Amino acid sequence: MNINTTKIISLLFFIFSAFYLYTAYQIQVFAFDENAPFNARTFPIYLGYTGLFFSGLKLILPDPDTIKVEHRTLEYKKTALLIVIAIIYGATILKVGYFLTTSLFLFASYYFLGERRWVLMFLLSFPFVAGFMYLLHGVLEIYLRDPFLKSIGVMG
Amino acid sequence: MTEGILIGLTTALSFQNIFMVMIGCFFGTIIGMLPGLGPMTAIALMIPITYGFDPATGLILMAGVYYGAVFGGSTSSILLNAPGVPGTVATSFDGYPMAQQGKAGKALAIAAWSSFAGGTLSAIYLLFMAPSLSKVSLSFRSPDYFALMILGLTAIAAFSSKGQFLKAMMMVVLGLMLASVGQDSLSDITRFTFDNMNLTDGISFVLVVMSTFAMSEALTIILKRNDPTAAAKQVSLTELGSIRINKEERGKMYRTIPRSSVIGFLIGVLPGAGATIASFLAYGMERNLVKDEEKEKFGKGSVNGLSAPETANNAACSGSFVPMLTLGIPGSGTTAVMLGALLGFGIQPGPRLYMTNPEIFWSVIMSMYIGMVILLILNLPLIPYIARILAVPKNYLIPLILFFSITGIYVMSFNNFDIYLMIGIAVVATFLRLYDFPMPPLILAFVLGGLMEENLRRSLLLSNGSWEFLWDRTLTVCILVTTILIVLWHIYKTFTKKKS
């Protein structure tokens, strides 16, 4: 059997399906539902076995169209950086507020992607978010929590 | 009936109602473009306004918002690969690649014309068949729905070219697994939540679609930035915004639109089925019907591949009015909101609605024609400008796509966990996409998962645990035979292709 990344993904999916199936069997159902033709664990159990079946097939059967990814050409560093910024954005959005975190997220993302036109970067972050926020909060009346703007008295 | 149609036409053609359709289409398009805000939100936002008008005008306004939002959703699907509503997911399969080839204006124009044709044709079907179709839609039982879901999932055959069938099936299972997270709909027992309260309500559709499509697309673009094969084609703004559809492309659309409108309308009529299944089925059907040469283009910017789901989802929107108006059963979440508004007006929808309140029943149907025309008039001139979004440099476009994706989730839940989950799914999806694991089957399975389990549950409970329900009813058998034929046809085609 030729080992390639697709096979490794299939193996991971096989393990995941086994774990899913194990968890499906652990779902607590009501006593009167235990022997019912269908209860909360029936469908997940079918799914677990189906997952094992298809990933097992993919593992066993030959893979004629092997996908080759040129890892040397991939931009892992910038992608990872962008993911980290997004995580920080997610972690701070509720505490700091929508306006400041979103604007800083956009500004930082432009910067890390190699942009250096400061005025454009500023315009497409702070004023842009302010306009978008006005559309959501002011026009469409969709509530946006923002402790920062509240603390400086901009938002009620 | 003729008298009713005339009353409806007079009501729909009043200045106030035409103006309402215009306002509805305009706001619907704008709201539909924003990720996370689909037609349901758009209509819900309009309800307080509609109470200031008479019921017919209120319903006409909401219907206008509905079409507008569906079209707006298609725009973000095509330009950013960010479908905000399930019904426009299939639009992105060929719309987004077409836009990436510098034909964003053309893709939007094809979507606009297909939506127009789909909506108009289905309004004609609605005019003649609404009362009788309501009876047909009632004849569908749980086993039929379950079979229909299976048929819907066979649409994955459309994405499983080049030996991808097993990969597509694995993605289907993964989508169904994701859909099973959260409370069981009947017993309220929590499943796969691992005592995390944030997962009790399950994973939202917008979260899954934004992470597997928009966000993972953005991450893939960054990841493949230095890949010479992935370098974007440089096109002029004129080419990008051109809405010209040539004769050959028009010919393809002429063949696709009628059949997709029929399938879209019929699926739309079924309560609970809606635009998503309709668009996926139309896409799958179209791929099976076109010539081998065109089939190769599917997923890479095919005109048929874009036109079919766009026609079907708009046709399904009109079709979903049948169970709502004639039976009082909302066919989708959006029509459920509209039904609520209708009840708020003191109108009881049902089989006698077109006799007791002809001005409401027929004016809504008549306003659909007007709505489609207005939608086209409003949107076609704007396409060259909207398409220019793609001319925005990637350094700006990528963060903006991430921003819209995260905002879409944030305004829905105000929850950090959902943002982390979204990023996690996006990272996994990006990795899977690198190795050619298709995402559309995952989305389709995720959308159908809940419905599928629900209908399997009912069927098994009614048959006391026996699987005989699969061949007890003629309709179920017909749907399952169609499913088997599609799969066999696909296997046969793959086999003969390999041989040749």
Please give the structural blueprint.
The complex is a heterodimer of chains A (156) and B (500).
Chain A: H1 5-26, H2 42-60, H3 76-96, H4 98-112, H5 118-123, H6 126-139, H7 147-151
Helix pairs in contact in A: 1-2, 3-4, 4-6
Chain B: H1 2-12, H2 15-33, H3 39-50, H4 55-80, H5 89-138, H6 142-153, H7 165-179, E1 182-183, E2 190-191, H8 205-223, H9 237-241, H10 247-269, H11 274-289, H12 292-295, H13 303-319, H14 321-327, H15 333-344, H16 353-356, H17 358-379, H18 383-386, H19 394-413, H20 416-434, H21 440-462, H22 469-472, H23 474-499
Antiparallel strand pairs in B: 1-2
Helix pairs in contact in B: 1-17, 2-3, 2-4, 2-17, 3-4, 3-15, 4-5, 4-13, 4-15, 4-17, 5-10, 5-13, 5-14, 5-17, 6-21, 6-23, 7-21, 8-19, 8-20, 10-11, 10-13, 11-13, 19-20
Task: Describe the protein in words.
The complex is a heterodimer of chains A (156) and B (500). Chain A folds into two domains: 5-60; 74-151, no CATH class. With 156 residues, chain A is an all-alpha fold. Chain A is built from seven helices and no strands. In chain A, 65% of the residues lie in helices and 0% in strands. In chain A, α3 (76-96) runs antiparallel to α4. Chain B is mainly α and 500 residues long. Chain B has one domain (2-232, 246-499). In chain B, 74% of the residues lie in helices and 1% in strands. A two-stranded antiparallel sheet of chain B has the order 1-2. In chain B, β1 and β2 (190-191) form a beta hairpin. In chain B, α10 packs parallel to α13. The longest helix of chain B is centred in the first third of the chain and has 50 residues, at 89-138. The termini of chain B are far apart. The mean pLDDT of chain B is 82. Classes of the chains: A mainly alpha (156), B mainly alpha (500). Chains A and B meet through α1, α2, α3 and α4 of A and α7, α8, α19, α20 and α21 of B.
